[in-house]
Amino acid sequence: MFKLSLLCVAAVLFVSSQEAHGKMTCKLPQVQIPDDWITMVNPCTKKMREQVQEELTAAMTYFAMGAHFSKDTVNRPGFAKIFFDSASEERDHAIKIIGYLLMRGGLTKDISQLIRDPQPLSETWADGLSALKDALKLEAHVTRKIRDIATTCEEPGRDGQDFNDYHLVDWLTGDFLTEQYEGQRDLAGKISNLGKMLEAHGALGEFLFDKKLLTGASV
Amino acid sequence: MSRYIVYLYLVQNKKCSWWQTLDNVHLSIPNESTICKSTVNVVTPLHIGIDNLVFPDHASLNTLFNFILLKKIKHEHLYNLVSSHFGNFEKNRGGFEKLYKKLSDNTWEKAIDLVKFIGKRGGHMNFRARKDEKNEKQIDFEMYELGSMARALDMQKGLAEEAHFLHAEVTRRKEHDPEVASYLENNFVHEHSEIIRKLSGHTNDLKQLIANQPDPSLSLYLFDEYLQKSL
């Protein structure tokens, strides 16, 4: 009842304040902008949009890894550091893809569907090695997705929509794939080094490895 | 309209924080949402509204921290989307794009910082610790300049509200935790006030610039240019 009376007071206030104020316009006139420069075709745009979510899912997974290795019972600050760095990197990738779509005249509608609450793929890991292995699998997955985009954008293969998007594919292979392959090699190397030590010197191996990661040494 | 309810509720319960006085911004904004027929509900209630601010008693500090972190991550994504919206060629508001990009970047950094802090204090992160946010509406991103800033202001206030609640929890005599209180003050509270004050200033400026104008295009253009240069 109290709430109801408040509602009435609010309603009265609302109406009276409306009358007291002048007109305000926010919507600007529609401009006719030629659209023949917007050449990206649907199947390709769709793949690129999906990639934003892929990259952010990767970002959240790395974020969860960072959180896991920051726990006092886990206490691997070096691992936490590289995973937080990777999380920011993946987020940057998502933003870069958005930037590209904007540059090509995209994202004028349906923007809310671009990021759909990405969730980490996992929240705990048995040890540093298993997290590194998961990271490598994740990177390989992202790489496959990027190749997928390239395949689709070279031959969208729809009636009247055949548009070989040289520029997009070049941008993807040049900027993204290079980074992916370098990142994958780096992770594989880390897994190799840590894995070799693990059999005979499990706890000590991971402990030392973690401190190396913390100082930014290449391991 | 719900803003009025929240506002009145605040006054009635003498729960007014200083930044609630910045609400005069909101009190006049319903005009925009009605006259501009924007589907954006500019006067959305604080998401962690006053009514559902009280967490269940058994909720531990860890859960509260999880909530606030998840909220930050959500905001980070929203700011990113709003930034992209203003970056498309039809909107083409580089200043607004930059404003929200900066908010997104800042929120992301703070989220990482926060999860480190949770680890530092022996907590853990549960990404599924979602609070029931049934009041949360689907955001319409076809938003205008003024509406977007009012919306951001609301989001920041919601976050501040939660940080204040958390601060109150750890400063009560029984659970007194000076370190958490200090962390919240240094990393959240001051910064929140700053952001809220800035957004409120922008919103007021812009509101005055476009009030009583049949065609606000030049005002918006100049304001956007100002944002782009000043940020």
Automatic annotation (TrEMBL), chain A:
Residues 1-22 form the signal peptide. Its EC number is 1.16.3.1. PROSITE patterns: FERRITIN_LIKE. GO terms for molecular function: ferric iron binding; ferrous iron binding; ferroxidase activity. It comes from the Eukaryota. Its main location: Golgi. One of its GO terms (cellular component) is Golgi apparatus. It is an enzyme of class 1 (oxidoreductase). One of its GO terms (biological process) is intracellular iron ion homeostasis. PANTHER family: FERRITIN (PTHR11431). Stores iron in a soluble, non-toxic, readily available form. Important for iron homeostasis. Iron is taken up in the ferrous form and deposited as ferric hydroxides after oxidation. This is Ferritin. It comes from Aphis glycines.
UniProtKB/TrEMBL annotation, chain B:
Residues 55-210 form the Ferritin-like diiron domain. Keywords: Iron, Iron storage, Metal-binding. The keyword Glycosyltransferase does not apply. GO terms for biological process: intracellular iron ion homeostasis; iron ion transport. One of its GO terms (molecular function) is ferrous iron binding. Belongs to the ferritin family. Stores iron in a soluble, non-toxic, readily available form. Important for iron homeostasis. Iron is taken up in the ferrous form and deposited as ferric hydroxides after oxidation. PANTHER family: FERRITIN (PTHR11431:SF51). This is Ferritin. It comes from Aphis glycines.
